[in-house]
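User: As part of a screening pipeline, I want to sanity-check one entry by hand. Below is the sequence and the SMILES for guanosine-5'-diphosphate. Please return the complex as structure tokens so I can compare it with the automated output.
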Amino acid sequence: MGTKTTRIHEVATDAQRALLLIISSTSDTQSQQERRAEELSALVDTMAVVVDRIEYVTLRTPNSTTLIGSGKVAEIEAIIKESAVDLAIFEMPLSPRIQRNLEEIWGCAVIDRDEVILQIFADRAQTKEAVLQIELARLEYSLPRLTRKWTHLSRQRGGMRGTRDAGETQLEMDRRQISDKILQLKAQLSKVVTQRAVQRSQRIESSIPVGAIVGYTNSGKSSLLNALTDAGVFVEDKLFATLDPTTRTVKLPGGEEILLSDTVGFVSNLPHNLVEAFKSTLEEAIYADFLIIVCDASSPDMISNYTTTVEVLEELGATDKPAIVLANKIDKLEDDFAVSRLRSLYSPVIESSIVTGVGLDLLVNEITELLKSLRPLSTYLIPTDRHDLVAHLHRWGQVQQIEYTEVGISVKARIDGRYQGPLLEYLQ
Ligand SMILES: Nc1nc2c(ncn2[C@@H]2O[C@H](COP(=O)(O)OP(=O)(O)O)[C@@H](O)[C@H]2O)c(=O)[nH]1
Ligand SMILES: [Mg+2]
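Assistant: Here is the complex for your manual check:
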């Protein structure tokens, strides 16, 4: 087919390499630990950092200076030196003190899951509100961590150095400036939120139907988008210059084009202070014409994850549109009743396995059906001197067939009601 395989999160060859540390208590089961590792891997992948290796550490009691105790610290240090990784990522929140201590001993950046999440949100923030929300969350995160040797927040702090008062240390200066900045951001945010409704109505409408792929991290959202754009029938032939790299054009077998956006994934145990920042990154879901909700059917948390997803979408006012629910990863389904439980909550649910290609054809059919309900197929008989109307249909709708007849130009097309006005009198 000659389609180029481009990953959603293209990883550069000089990408940073990470060691993941999954810390568990003695009561955690192996499958719980593995699920946490999988979720963190998917998050790190989104950040375009390569997972070099994963280490599991079981803790009886946390050590107050290094969390994992000197024996483990030395063991991990040897691994870091040997594999020359650039950073160590803990799957749990680290106190600023422990983070600093470990960075000093290991000589590499040590970050926690919260910082990974913040980085992903920051990379995906598009609207003014999202940018402000995430900057606020990052500053609050960085405030107790100003003495860190390795920082990922340098971009944020760069522009804030002012003239220093005599006797005041740089550290106090930074701390006060950051506190001031936090107050400023909060004030700006309250203004932006009230303007949100206005911005929404001013958004430039696209004539192509837009679908947003939503769901938890690690459920298979990026794999789905890749599968749809890589498969032969879906030729990705154009990318709008203004679109972000996580939106793709997908051509359906019937010839219709749609845009699909990969959204920021929900994460389990999202830290409370990141909830607003997360919601602000879900703009695509608000503006989309339809949703594809991807669930990991192999996860014991599938139902509660699905419920949380729908609740958040409801809060955002994004549930007034058709949705398709995908029960993905059925190739590793453990609970035979999982899918029927999901079906009792929502229909249609399509079972899929993106890695083996199962269910993708059903999904495509479902999308095709759904589009018909969005924009019904109509026939217009346009006078031969009104080529401007044919052009209008090409520009704002999807033309399926054109016939030049003695009585005029007969065009079969789908067009959104908003653009149908000038054509109404020619509707057959
Ligand atoms: N077994 C199995 N693994 C899958 C399936 N779909 C995706 N995955 C894997 O699940 C992991 C997370 O997928 P990804 O698309 O990155 O999830 P995202 O975080 O929702 O974008 C990757 O390792 C995928 O290869 C599936 O149908 N079955
Ligand atoms: Mg993804």
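Points to compare against the pipeline: The first strand starts at residue 17 and ends at 25. Residues 46, 221-222, 265 surround magnesium ion (ligand 2) (CB under 6 Å).
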